[in-house]
Amino acid sequence: MKRLIAVAGAALAWTALAVAPASAADKVVLMLNWYVYGEHAPFYYGKAKGIYAAEGIDLEIQEGRGSAATTQAVAAKTADFGYVDVPTMMRAAVKGAPVIATGVLLQTSPMSAMGFVDKNIRKPEDIKGKTVAITPADSMTQIWPLFLKKTGLKESDFNTVAGDGQTKLNAVINGQADLLLGYVMDQSMKIKDATGKDVYPIKFADYGINMVSSGIIANSDYVKANADLVRRFMSATTKAVEAAEKDPKAAAQSILDANPKGGKIDTLTQGFELTIPLYRTPETKAKRPFHVTDQNMTESVNLMVEYGGLDAKAKANPKAFYTNDYLPKGDS
């Protein structure tokens, strides 16, 4: 009888272990820079494919209302991570916001001057005599004088109309402007969604303006207190980007699966495909996503100080704004 009891007890103990729940996944909030568009596909794809879950992360993706607002949320710890314009984060950090980039995804600038293909505006010289729509004080308008300098254009060579983001889009859509300043994978797709017409971008990067753009940021104190979680999050996000690169349409579809009103599959896919070439520079073409070089970041800081309104003291220590320490090792 004692032997039977012992065997039964052991069986019950084993059963209890077998059905005991695994340790709960870490809840993580990622806030985007804006309403969802094609650039954001890897995050949704990584969640849909269980890449974050495999790293013990229960990911919640929240839309944002601009990089500055998302940076503020991360600084205040109301979001664990943010996906933002890194130069915008620099402006906050140099003023004391406790934020740092734990990975820079877009290492080539997506900034451009774009107009309808049938306008045949393909090079800076073609901008002369045209009307350009801008949004005062946004990141592109701040770098615009550098583009003019690099290409030999003057403010007097063209007309300018100003308005908020939607007004700028409407100006081109309605023919009140020939071009607008926008990101190659964002505003161009919004215009195509609205009109069905293709847009041609004159990319700032093609004229020697090499500056980082979007990346992952976190609160500096949060990073120190949760080093293992930050490593797991960056590992999962790196894998999500790599997986999405291999199947852009499926990655874009994951946006619509999570948010049916998130756009149209064709332009979401095209927008994401336009984003992929921005992930690497010639120096990082063999690296996995997010590995930014010190030179790229230093040059970006210098450009922001000269043209983007960044406090000059930022030049003293560009490495204060970013770290590669939490990224997975190895080449792509």
How would you describe the overall organization of this protein?
The protein is globular and about 65 Å long. α2 packs across α11. Helix content is 42%, strand content 16%. The protein is built from 13 helices and 10 strands. It is of the alpha/beta class and 332 residues long. The protein folds into 2 domains: 27-109 and 211-320, 3-Layer(aba) Sandwich (D-Maltodextrin-Binding Protein, domain 2); 111-207, D-Maltodextrin-Binding Protein, domain 2 (3-Layer(aba) Sandwich), CATH 3.40.190. Mean pLDDT is 92; it is low at 1-21.
Shape: globular
**Using DSSP, what is the number of strands?**
10
Q: What percent of the residues sit in helical stretches (DSSP H or I)?
A: 40-55%
In the CATH hierarchy, the third-tier topology of the largest domain is known as D-Maltodextrin-Binding Protein, domain 2
Main sheet?
A: 5 strands, mixed
Major β-sheet strand ordering:
2-1-3-10-4
Nearest-integer average pLDDT: 92
By CATH, the superfamily of the largest domain comes out as Periplasmic binding protein-like II
Count of helices? 13
Q: Which percent range describes the beta-strand content?
A: 15-25%
Low-confidence stretches: 1-21
Structural class: alpha/beta
CATH top level class name of the largest domain: Alpha Beta
Distance between the termini: 62 Å
Number of domains: 2
Task: Label the CATH architecture of the largest domain.
Answer: 3-Layer(aba) Sandwich
> What is the C-alpha radius of gyration, as a whole number of Å?
23 Å
Q: Give me the oligomer status.
A: single chain
List SSEs in N-to-C order.
Answer: HEHHEHEHEEEHEHEHEEHHHHH
Signal peptide: 1-24
Domain SsuA/THI5-like: 39-251
InterPro entries: NMT1/THI5, SsuA/THI5
Protein name: ABC transporter substrate-binding protein
